[in-house]
Amino acid sequence: MKVLVPVKRVVDYNVKVRVKSDGSGIDTAGVKMSMNPFDEIAVEEAVRLKEQRVASEIIVVSVGINACQDVLRTALAMGADRGVLIAATETLEPLAVAKLLKALVAREIVQLVMMGKQAIDDDMNATGQMLAGILGWPQGTFASKVVITADTATVTREVDSGLETVALALPAVITTDLRLNEPRYASLPNVMRARKKPIEVIAPHELGVEHSPRLTVVNVTEPARRAAGIKVKSVQELVERLRKEAKVI
Amino acid sequence: MGQALVFIEHDGTEIKTQARNAITAGSKLGDVVAVVAGYNVDHIAKAASVISGVKKVVVADDEVFSFALAEPLADLLVHLAPSYSHIIAASTAIGKSIIPRAAGLLDVQPISEVIGIIDANTFVRPIYAGNANATVRSSDTRKLMTVRATSFDPAPPDGATAPIEVFDVAIANTKSRFVSAEVPKNERPELTAARVIVSGGRGLQNGENFRKLIYPIADKLCAAVGASRAAVDAGFVPNDYQVGQTGKIVAPDLYVAIGISGAIQHLAGMKDSKIIVAINKDEDAPIFQVADYGMVGDLFSILPELDRELDCLA
Ligand SMILES: Cc1cc2nc3c(=O)[nH]c(=O)nc-3n(C[C@H](O)[C@H](O)[C@H](O)COP(=O)(O)OP(=O)(O)OC[C@H]3O[C@@H](n4cnc5c(N)ncnc54)[C@H](O)[C@@H]3O)c2cc1C
Fold first, then answer.
1. Cross-chain Cβ contact A157/B93 below 8 Å
2. Is the pLDDT at A6 greater than 80, yes or no?
């Protein structure tokens, strides 16, 4: 079974981002960029499926500028077989990305798409569900456990009340949550080997996808900051202030 | 004004509070039609029909909707879509699963986690774990979105009675099947609805300490119990306790963070709380930057003392 894993290049999760002073967006100049953490989990899961001989080939795909090849290389070093960069100069919206992925799924005859549940930059949490919808495939969102048998993916999902397990008829889209696995670090030999793995670069129009944006960003602002609080010296003082000053207990 | 279709989440017994928050959001955009889907859900439809602001209820009562699976629910929304300018759900696990799927099918770019409504086309939503707010304008003729419950007051559950209409188009689902649910027993208030939350982090060291030190204090404050990702990952508490960017978004009157460092991903889920208390032995822990009341010290001596102090209050 061929597995497709989309990976996004985002501002590293440790970076505290700054809003540009003209309100046009986030200042990303000189900021550390990494693979979206949820996508790392998706790559890891796909590699484990390959190690279990469930997956035959892992294709990783990124949509964006040339530098996205870095995250493709990371995924290749973790164990993916080949990469595809769908070259785009601007950031595409989830709808456009879903359409591009759909076209790639058709071209590659993929049986399973394993992807992060959300990108930590736009926090949309949408692409996997949209892709599943337009493919007419079932979806297993927020996965914390995945078991693949001949024609079924059994997915345990993190939901508001705890865990829920669903059985999906393959082909399917699965989106990964934090506790699905712990992604491996690529060993140096694997990093070296990954340099030789192929990355194909294609343009969106080659996949026949129209991708004009539907959303315009009017502005980006910094949320109101909380005023600095005080340090209390004792438990008595804490309880006293919560009662008399804040009046919350 | 438009027509807003609001998805009513329920657990088979009652309507989730977040659905009433979503109705308030919907009311800002048009006449609200509430859609209830489930199996044997007359009582839910009735309860929805008296929520303030609801002009009509559409009820889809069929076995296919027994378990809130995304595939048939999204198909239902797609069927209903032509009559509405806006389709809205609270951004819960279910809302997040069905709205984007329906949006894909309708060729619409959904808008997730809306925290502000400027006009029928313009919405505010947090990005980068809440470190920035983006105002976005949609050019789609129909808008699909999830709304953050804590940003909209819940619509009162006892308004005028709206008519109930039955949806009777058969929707099939051959692609997904419910297998089982694991719902940890929890007699405390629900995190997303609680007035007070006591949360613990890695500093608690293990589940035993969590039970011994956090739970009694939560009980004395009639509080819900929350946790950081680190505490959930380490198995101190179940996954549904997690607060943060990828857990639950909460905004109680009082949030007490104990042994939690205050990573941006955790702050993303609780920084809109009215009063924040932090107890941490590291005076430089970032949690103190958002705390109204901070106490530097060892939680293993502070918590038993706090427990006794709260006894004196009672
Ligand atoms: C993509 C992504 C998403 C994430 N989503 C979330 C999320 O939704 N929610 C979330 O919480 N995290 C999330 N995280 C993880 C987050 O980055 C932090 O790792 C996590 O919040 C840390 O949890 P913690 O504060 O309990 O642990 P730590 O950071 O280890 O902090 C423990 C704290 O306890 C204090 N402490 C230790 N012993 C004592 C003692 N005896 N007395 C008093 N204080 C003590 C320490 O000083 C320290 O500040 C996410 C991370 C990623 C990459």
1. yes
2. yes
